[in-house]
Amino acid sequence: MAIQRWDPLRDLVVLQERMNRMFEDALARSGGTADTESLATSGWRPSVDIFEQDSHYVLRADLPGIPPDGVEIEVEGDALTLRGERRPDAAVGRESYLRAERPQGRFSIQITLPPSVERSAIRASQRDGVLDVVLPKKEERAPGKLKVDVR
């Protein structure tokens, strides 16, 4: 069993993200908006999982029907923003639908990154409608002996 360093702020970050999502969803249902970005979206959000592995975190988003060039990932400060748009099927006219449950339109998700993420090494890939964003952790320097010269 490996000993892992406990990060007390990680639980707070997860709680903050859950609270943000709860308020954004409630506002979207009531017709309000959480921010100016929400004004331009249709109010849908793809399902997202975030999990931790030894050397990195993974953000996994379900994006069926959205090509890789239709997804934008941006990192600014400690925030990762995932944007995209699912467009209606051009081959099927709007009047032809008997039932339409799949959400369409633009979406935007913002995730607060933990301080341990190496922002310059973030990479993403998409396969079978699932987007994986790999968030590598910064290398931790083992506590050791350091000699400091006195001048």
Describe this structure in words.
With 151 residues, this protein is α+β, with helices and mostly antiparallel strands. It has one domain: Immunoglobulin-like (Sandwich), CATH 2.60.40.790. The protein contains two helices and seven strands, in the order ααβββββββ. The chain has helices at residues 8-30, 36-39, and strands spanning 48-52, 56-62, 71-76, 79-86, 105-112, 123-127, 130-136. It has a four-stranded antiparallel beta sheet, with no helix packed on it. Strand 6 (123-127) and strand 7 (130-136) form a beta hairpin. The chain is elongated, with a radius of gyration of 20 Å. The chain starts with 7 loop residues before the first helix and ends in a 15-residue tail after the last strand. Residues 33-41 have low confidence and may be disordered.
Give the key terms.
151 residues; alpha+beta; Immunoglobulin-like; 4-stranded antiparallel beta sheet; 3-stranded antiparallel beta sheet; 2 helices; 7 strands; 30% strand; elongated
